[in-house]
Amino acid sequence: MKTTGGSDEQKRRAGERAAEAVEDGDVVGLGTGSTAAYAIRALGRAVDDGLDVVGIPTSFDSRQLAREVGVPVRSLEAIEGIDLAIDGADQFDSQLAAIKGGGAAHAREKVVAAAADRLVLVVDPSKSAATLTRSVPLEVLPDARPAVERDVADLGGASTLRRAERKDGPVVTDNGNLVLDCDFGPIDDPGRLASSLASVPGVVEHGLFVGLADAAYVGTDDGVEVRTRD
Ligand SMILES: O=C[C@H](O)[C@H](O)[C@H](O)COP(=O)(O)O
């Protein structure tokens, strides 16, 4: 998966600190992306040392990595609750509202985050913003794409179909859908935009995570800064 933003060392610190918050017997949501991957690898080492956990992957890639490093996995439908979800973000603000979906995994990520008692974002300082400004990814039913593009324009956004980097054609999600990256400029009210996007027919899920994260572990050059909502 493409690595963005801060240094690998910053991401490693954030991911490993979040893995330390996992307790024996926990069911853990395993996020997607380069930062969450550090948490999954750290959990694998903890399992080697005797930690008893079950991981709930949010994507093909996180499932694959968990299996490689020895974290036992189960699917979301097989469990009743999640103690802690650990996941990355593409941008987040002081209220821990976040834009996710740089890896096109935000639909499952949101289901896991909503099912979790706690969501910890693992990020580097480049993800922090006073106002969310990045494009918001929408997972969209393929047939609904033109209609969704029109609705996004009515909401003041400009959509771009996400294209695959190493083959001709669009990115197809783990669920068989397309991704539209939608630029709304600075997002003054993430909650209002989230509600509007959730009501667009054909949008399977949008990448705005509002009111879901409990903490952000920000890996820095010196350590880890733990941020909570203002
Ligand atoms: O769909 C992917 C996810 O939302 C990722 O958690 C997000 O893109 C952050 O990834 P990374 O830690 O690689 O920047």
From TrEMBL:
Enzyme class: isomerase
Assigned GO CC terms: cytosol
Keywords: Isomerase
Pathway(s): Carbohydrate degradation; pentose phosphate pathway; D-ribose 5-phosphate from D-ribulose 5-phosphate (non-oxidative stage): step 1/1
Enzyme Commission number(s) from the entry: 5.3.1.6
Reactions catalysed according to its record: aldehydo-D-ribose 5-phosphate = D-ribulose 5-phosphate
Disordered as annotated region, ranges: 1-20
Residue sites binding substrate per the record: T32, G33, S34, T35, D87, G88, A89, D90, K100, G101, G102, G103, K127
Molecular function in Gene Ontology: ribose-5-phosphate isomerase activity
InterPro entries: NagB/RpiA_transferase-like, Ribose5P_isomerase_typA_subgr, Ribose5P_isomerase_type_A
GO terms under biological process: D-ribose metabolic process; pentose-phosphate shunt, non-oxidative branch
Catalytic residues (UniProt): E109 (proton acceptor)
Quaternary organization: Homotetramer.
NCBIfam families with a match to the protein in the record: PRK00702.1, rpiA
Family: Belongs to the ribose 5-phosphate isomerase family.
Cited function: Catalyzes the reversible conversion of ribose-5-phosphate to ribulose 5-phosphate.
Entry protein name: Ribose-5-phosphate isomerase A
Species classification: Archaea, Methanobacteriati, Methanobacteriota, Stenosarchaea group, Halobacteria
Gene name per UniProt: rpiA
